[in-house]
């Protein structure tokens, strides 16, 4: 099974960006941890990060015929990107929305996810474990 794990804007700064909210590990460390997690041992994973909405959409388009699922932390695009929402529908890649922080216990604008109802599930608030919860959901669903 092939999975893409996508991180959106500002997630490249993990480790230095608001560590009290997002933790002190870098994105590279988080990705390595996911890759080495025992749940992932039979999965083909590909990681992608971009700060650009267009690049995220282009990446989804490019994978639409070759992957089974997507784990997506869209960063702030979660809250307003109808273009990303359309890309999830348009590519028909079953996508799980994930967040490190609990978006429902922060500023009001974070409580809205415009991608939530085009995703197959949403996991948040457990740091890097949120990504694994998404993968676990996919594996249990199969
Ligand atoms: C985030 C939450 C978003 O509101 C924020 O803009 C991010 C990270 C999270 O992982 O908790 O960039 O998606």
- What's the domain count? 1
Number of helices: 5
CATH superfamily: Dehydroquinase, class II
Shape: globular
Largest sheet: spatial strand order: 2-1-3-4-5
At the fold tier of CATH, the topology name is Rossmann fold
Number of DSSP-assigned strands: 5
Bound molecules: 1,3,4-trihydroxy-5-OXO-cyclohexanecarboxylic acid
Distance between the termini: 10 Å
Give structural notes.
The chain is α/β, with parallel strands linked by helices. It has a single domain (2-141), classed as 3-Layer(aba) Sandwich (Rossmann fold). Helix content is 33%, strand content 17%. The protein is built from five helices and five strands. Helix 4 links the parallel strand 3 and strand 4. Helix 3 packs parallel to helix 4. The termini are close together. The mean pLDDT is 98. 1,3,4-trihydroxy-5-OXO-cyclohexanecarboxylic acid binds at residues 10, 73, 75-76, 78, 99-101, 103, 110. Residues 10, 73, 75-76, 78, 99-101, 103, 110 line the site of 1,3,4-trihydroxy-5-OXO-cyclohexanecarboxylic acid (DQA).
Question: What are the key terms here?
Answer:
globular, 5 strands, alpha/beta, Rossmann fold, binds 1,3,4-trihydroxy-5-OXO-cyclohexanecarboxylic acid
């Amino acid at each position: 099974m092939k999975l893409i794990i996508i991180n959106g804007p500002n997630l490249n700064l993990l480790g230095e960006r608001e560590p009290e909210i997002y933790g002190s590990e870098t994105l590279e460390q988080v990705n390595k941890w996911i890759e080495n997690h025992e749940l992932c041992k039979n999965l083909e994973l590909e990681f992608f990060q971009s700060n650009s909405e267009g690049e995220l959409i282009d990446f989804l388009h490019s994978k639409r015929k070759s992957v089974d699922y997507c784990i997506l932390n869209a960063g702030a695009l979660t809250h307003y990107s109808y273009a990303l929402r359309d890309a999830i529908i348009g590519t028909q890649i079953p996508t799980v929305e994930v967040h490190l922080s609990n978006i429902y216990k922060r500023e009001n604008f974070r409580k809205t996810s415009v991608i939530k109802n085009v995703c197959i599930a949403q996991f948040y608030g457990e740091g890097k474990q949120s990504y694994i919860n998404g993968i676990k959901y996919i594996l249990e669903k199969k």
